[in-house]
Design brief:
By secondary structure, this protein is of the alpha/beta class. Helix content is 37%, strand content 19%. Strand 1 and strand 2 form a beta hairpin.
């Protein structure tokens, strides 16, 4: 009897484990890997606010230099200056800038007028992008002026250029740099 019960239990467990799919709880969703996402179906997060454009690029979208070239062409079509912006969600200066832009802080909106900001997360891309002509990023936020082909011009600035991280201080420094 005991042996029959154990065989029945083992068969039930084996049958249940192989045929019954286990649904994910509602709070969990499958996350596809980068290779599972075809580039053609993924649109970058693009925000056109006021007189500037903000776009995030991601590893799964393609090669770094190709993405910069594509966005530089888009910037030129809009009559905007392409700027590569290295950032991270944990960076206090980056958060002040991001919050200020999303809240349409007047000083930042004016400073970034005519700019196509290509956001590059250092946690995703790293502090140096192999195969690109960018120098290693030493501090964030970091901004790199691009030409109309998406190549780094050699002109850059980072968050050490302003004092306290306030929208006014950031705008006071970034406005003249962006518009020279």
């Amino acid at each position: 009897m005991k042996r029959t019960f154990l065989l029945f239990l083992a068969a039930t467990l084996l049958f249940a484990c192989t045929l019954t799919p286990v649904p994910l709880p509602p709070t969990q969703t499958p996350v596809p890997t980068a290779t599972a996402l075809p580039t053609a179906t993924v649109a970058p997060l693009l925000t056109e606010m006021g007189g500037y454009t903000l776009v995030y690029i991601h590893l799964y979208e393609g090669a770094f230099n190709d993405l910069l070239a594509e966005h530089a062409r888009r910037a030129a079509a809009l009559g905007q200056q392409p700027i590569a912006y290295f950032t991270a969600h944990w960076c206090p200066s980056c958060r002040v800038l991001s919050d200020g832009l999303s809240e349409q802080h007047p000083a930042l909106v004016e400073a970034f007028e005519g700019v196509y900001l290509i956001c590059i997360n250092v946690d995703e891309w790293g502090w140096g992008v192999p195969g690109s002509d960018f120098p290693r990023v030493e501090a964030i936020p970091a901004f790199y002026r691009l030409d109309n082909n998406g190549r780094y011009t050699g002109d850059s600035i980072d968050g050490s250029a302003w004092e306290a991280d306030t929208p006014e201080n950031i705008a006071r420094v970034m406005g003249p740099w962006l518009h020279r």
